[in-house]
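Here is the promised in-class demo. Please do not try to memorize the tokens; focus on the logic of going from shape to residues.
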């Protein structure tokens, strides 16, 4: 059984930073593309960032480029999301997800929700103005 557990969310002022973590068990972590998504109230879930199994290739949503950095530690079955220069519009629930083994390149379609069979319960990030 695959388990995905996010942590690190919280309340921060605009301009501040947070670091999210996501630990996965129950699958061969180092063989899977991973991604962060977020969902604001009343909005659809959107892709934030993607990282390939080796960690050598990453992709970002346009709204977070230059501010967020995704990384992974395959020895610890964990990925991270360093979020800097946070804005009120970054507020939402942040989810970690594992991609199906078929996908491993963070191609242009990486934010397609159907590519991710395993999801965490999410962690709340609130950025105050």
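The designed amino acids, position by position:
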């Amino acid at each position: 059984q695959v388990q995905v557990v996010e942590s690190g969310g919280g309340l921060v002022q605009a301009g501040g930073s947070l670091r999210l973590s996501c630990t996965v068990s129950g699958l061969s972590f180092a063989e899977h593309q991973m991604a962060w998504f977020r969902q604001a109230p009343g909005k659809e879930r959107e892709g934030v960032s993607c990282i390939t199994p080796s960690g050598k290739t990453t992709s970002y949503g346009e709204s977070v480029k230059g501010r967020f950095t995704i990384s992974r530690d395959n020895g610890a079955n964990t990925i991270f999301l360093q979020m800097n220069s946070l804005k009120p519009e970054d507020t939402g629930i942040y989810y970690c997800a594992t991609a199906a083994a078929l996908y491993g390149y963070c191609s242009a379609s990486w934010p397609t929700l159907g590519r991710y069979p395993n999801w965490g319960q999410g962690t709340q990030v609130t950025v105050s103005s």
